[in-house]
Write a structure and sequence with these properties.
The protein has 273 residues and is an alpha+beta fold. It has two domains: 117 residues, GTP cyclohydrolase I, C-terminal domain/NADPH-dependent 7-cyano-7-deazaguanine reductase, N-terminal domain (GTP Cyclohydrolase I, domain 2, 2-Layer Sandwich), CATH 3.30.1130; 153 residues, Alpha-Beta Plaits (2-Layer Sandwich). It is built from eight helices and eleven strands. The strands form three sheets. Strands 5, 6, 7, 8 and 9 form a five-stranded antiparallel sheet that branches. Strands 1-2-3-4 form a four-stranded antiparallel sheet. Strand 10 and strand 11 form a beta hairpin. Helix 3 packs across helix 4 and helix 7 packs antiparallel against helix 8. It comes from Anaerostipes hadrus. This is Bifunctional folate synthesis protein. Pfam families: FolB, HPPK. Keywords: ATP-binding, Folate biosynthesis, Kinase, Lyase, Nucleotide-binding, Transferase.
Length: 273
Amino acid sequence: MDQITIKDLEVYANHGLYKEEKALGQKFLVSAILSLDTKLAGVSDQMDYSVDYGKVCHRIKEILTENDFNLIECVAETVAKKLLLEFSLIRKLEIEVKKPWAPIGLPLDYVSVKIKRGWHRAYLGVGSNMGDRMEYINQAINAIEAQDDTRVVHVSSLIETKPYGGVVQDDFLNGCIAIDTLKEPEELLDFLMDVEAQAGRVRTIHWGPRTLDLDILMYDDLVMNERRLTIPHKEMHKRLFVLEPLEEIAPYLMHPLLGQTITQLKEKIKEEQ
């Protein structure tokens, strides 16, 4: 991905843990590496296809001068999030905030915090087999869209399927949702569990009936296996009710462990039936 670099933008602002820092202010240096596709801008010579780095610099200055932060960690996080939300062509960025006058009582060039943030493409499975199934699923989509740091990109058709796991219960409505999000995987998991809870989801019977079920199927090409979360979803390649709606919105999505597309995984299950 192409990059636009802003190096050591100087801003005088009042941030710090000590009251003297907030009262007197000090110099901060902010650097940004913006990752985006500049091909169209380079070919057309039109600003519409790129990011105006002058506007970015002035926005960074506004963020630092119009807010009051204790930590430069929070300065960096706020700058990163606002730039990603306000400049739609930026896919990823790196922000470094330097504090050359850090009051530590020892000589130094500067103290800095550097972070990398960006948009991530995630695929979610959604299902319901209790009450007004369609309404619960629509509520989930609306809750996702209401997040300022998450965008719904595609929603598959819904299919009616028999329950999975051997528990006697009503049929499910199942589908898949593609999202772009700034949330990290466990942040996304916590948010989705909260949406389930708001829909009255109760976790009493494994693979039992539920008002709403939201699963992270894939997150970029990430592979992780933690206590609370496994990505890719460890059962997705075995479930037609996941693969069929997922194929509708991402047929060539590649499973990072199995090395096969969603279409190939679906066809494999059908051949084995």
